[in-house]
Amino acid sequence: MAGRNHPYSRTLNSRPSNIVDTHRLIHSHRQPQANPAAVIEAQQREIQILLRDNQRLAANHVVLNQELAAADQELRHLSSTAAKVKADCDARVREVYESSLKTEAELRSLDAMSVELVQVKSDIENMTVETKELTAKLREINEALASSAPQLEGFPGIEEELQTMRQEIKRGRAAIEYEKKMHASNLEQSEVLDKNVVSMAREIEKLRAELADAEKRAKAAASAAAVPAPPGICGLRCGVFKPLLSFQLTDYDYLCVCSYEVLQIPFKVPGIPLYFQWLRLHMVATIMLSITPCSRFVY
């Protein structure tokens, strides 16, 4: 396209017409009658013309190569531009397609929303009817309150009574909480006492067993004794305690000492309170006094 107005065509067209005449002269001078000097001169002129034409052709060739390179570069640029344009077109088509899909989805959602809108409209109509009914009822209630206002003014002490009742309810709740706490503490104490009673019952059973064993030993000792026993009770050898005693003992104290000798019941047991130990010895002494009369031990 760019070679239509190329200078090479103009050069070929502008070639002097005497070249053809020169060729004719050369062919005509080839005859034996031609002058060699004229022929040589004509050939030189033709050679010069050919050289100039060759130079013009070389220049035209260089120009054509440059134009071809420029055209090739322009073609590459156009190809890259076409690829970019195609990519842009594809991207735009893709965007348009995606937007069409989104629009279609939105249209579907709008269809669903239109159904919901119809339902909402019906609900609004129903709520409007209900609001009117409630407004009418509220108006009736306000009228009833307005008519009963003079009657309410005749009871000024109701609020005070309500306040007093609230305070009494608070006091009752506090008392109930206190009773709950006391009940819990009493329950704990009762559990402790129950445990103590159970332990005492076990101790009493143990004492009864020991007492039965002691009665058996006493009967065996009374039947086996051949001589009267020294001063004491029940034939017991209480004289062994004389070095330990520096005061006059009662029958009860003496029985406690003798119960330790016969029954091997210690005065103090580790881990048992003194009150229960005293109760233990008291029970033993009471049972022994009820079995055999005792005399005072004096020395």
From TrEMBL:
InterPro entries linked to this entry: FLX/FLX-like
Claim: Nucleus is one of the keywords in the record: no
A biological-process GO annotation: flower development
Coiled coil: 40-74, 190-224
TM segment ranges: none
Keyword Coiled coil: yes
Keywords: Coiled coil, Developmental protein, Differentiation, Flowering
Family (UniProt): Belongs to the FLX family.
Name of this chain's protein: OLC1v1006326C2
Taxonomic lineage from the root: Eukaryota, Viridiplantae, Streptophyta, Embryophyta, Tracheophyta
